Amino acid sequence: MPLGLRPALSRLGLSRQDTGVNQPISNPPLTLLPARAVSPAVPVWRLVGRLATVAVVFLIVVQLTHTLGATPIGFSSWRPVAIGLIAWFVLIDISIVVTRGQAGQKLLFLLPALQVTLALVIFPTLFGLVVAFTEWDLGSASGIRFNGVDNFRRLVGDATFWNALGNNARYVLVAVPLQYVIAFAVALLLNQQIRGRKFFRVVFLLPFMISPVAVGWMIGRSILAADKGVVPNLLETFGLKGVSFFDQSLPAFLGIVAMDSWINIPFMMVLLLAGLQALPQEVFEAAQIDGAGGIRRFRDITFPLMLPVTLTALVLRMIFEFKLVDIVRVVTAGGPGGATDTLSLYIYREGVESTNVGYATTMSMVFLVIVVAVVSIFLLALSRRIRDVVY
After folding, report:
1. Which letter does DSSP use for residue 293 in this model?
2. 3-state SS of 146-193?
3. What torsion, rounded to 10 degrees, do the Cα atoms 45, 47, 51, 57 define?
4. Each residue's pLDDT tens digit in the chain (391 positions)?
5. Residue 386 and residue 80: Cα distance in Å, rounded?
6. Which residue in 262, 267, 271 sits closest to 191, CA to CA?
7. What DSSP designation does 391 have?
8. What burial class does residue 328 get, using C-beta atoms within 10 Å of its C-beta: 0-12 exposed, 13-18 middle, 19+ buried?
């Protein structure tokens, strides 16, 4: 023991043995914690989850084979299968929470979204893929039967399908850039410090709040129609007789583009305006101090920084433009001579009006693949360009 430590210990009334100085260190004996008891409900709910999964898969397979006419066993509709699927969702959620404890509770926040996606997106897509290989005419007494790739052979030689698909491509190539340019200009205007800015923002949003069917009826049928439209009758009083906006291919196509753009420009304007307001103002102030004018600031700062928002707006509008059907259905019904027809409208006529569900589903599946391919290529090409410019 050090000499200086001995008087301090004596003053405290402690001895060398009490302090344990120079004594060997002994570790306390290790004690094992008792194993966590497993709740008797865990194996029960694990079994319930497995049985429920097997039951719902069996129910779907039986009903699917019954719908396709392979077996006589099954329900008259898919309603019992939907009820069984909802019950399976509830049972599997409870089973996961009980059997996995805290991890199951965390997973419970994700399961409902996955289950809704499975029920409303994945399963209908897979079911539609099966129906695409069948001949299913609701007006026929023969019901549904498997016909292999006959629907796809018919689609290859279907001139109406390719005409409608070409019209869809023209709508995308003409309407989307037009809407983007006008929406960007309006967004730049509304981003300035002008009087009544909030009022004008609300006014420019009004067309987006109106139903496309209502717009098609008010503008296309009530104002521009040749038989009872206000504008043709007004032009007739000035000696311009026989003016028609929808009896010729090009005016009809441009009229549909104009009405569709009037409705959807506010949507792109809101996205672009939100992007403009999120841009850092320090960059613009520094550029202004350096003497950069408004056009140069837009070309070198605003437009490059807005490319990610531009990509989002263009992709959304491309998808919506591919699905164009309501205005065309109300105003021209695809005419004249198929000049304004769209693939969605043709699928509607074939599946709903002609009750040919099998061929309509085949066109829907092919259309889905085409849209996904076009959007994916556009995303890859423009995303690479955005990385080169922005980052």
Report:
1. -
2. ECCCHHHHHHHCCHHHHHHHHHHHHHHHHHHHHHHHHHHHHHHHHCCC
3. 80
4. 454 545 544 554 544 454 444 555 555 565 554 555 567 788 899 999 999 999 999 999 999 888 877 888 889 888 999 999 999 999 999 999 999 888 888 888 898 899 999 988 998 899 899 999 999 888 877 778 888 899 999 999 999 999 999 999 999 999 999 999 999 999 999 988 878 778 888 888 899 999 999 999 888 888 888 777 788 878 778 877 777 788 889 989 999 999 999 999 999 999 999 999 998 888 888 888 888 888 888 888 899 889 999 999 999 999 999 999 999 999 999 989 999 999 999 999 999 999 999 999 999 999 999 999 999 999 998 887 777 766 6
5. 50
6. 271
7. -
8. buried
Eight-state DSSP code of residue 135: E
Kindly list the domain boundaries of the chain, sorted by start residue.
41-131, 153-390
How far is the CA of 11 from the CAs of 2, 5, 18, 181, in angstroms? 15, 10, 14, 91
C-alpha to C-alpha distance for 191 and 276, rounded to whole angstroms: 7
pTM over 0.85: no
Structure-block tokens of residue 113: 């979204």
**Tokens coding 266:** 């506010």
Instruction: Return the DSSP state at 78.
Output: S
Q: Is 244 helix (H, G, I), strand (E, B) or coil?
A: coil
Cα 30 → chain centroid: 58
Q: How far is CA 38 from CA 35, 42, 194, 258, in A?
A: 9, 7, 68, 67
DSSP element (H, E) containing 144: strand 144-146
State which CATH number among 1.10.3720.10, 3.80.30.20, 2.40.50.140, 3.40.630.30 fits the domain covering 153-390. Answer: 1.10.3720.10
Q: Report how far residue 133's alpha carbon sits from residue 172's, in angstroms, rounded to the nearest whole number.
A: 30
CA nearest to 127, candidates 69, 65, 58: 65
CA distance 293 to 181: 21
| Main-chain dihedrals φ then ψ at residue 356, nearest 5 degrees | -95, 80
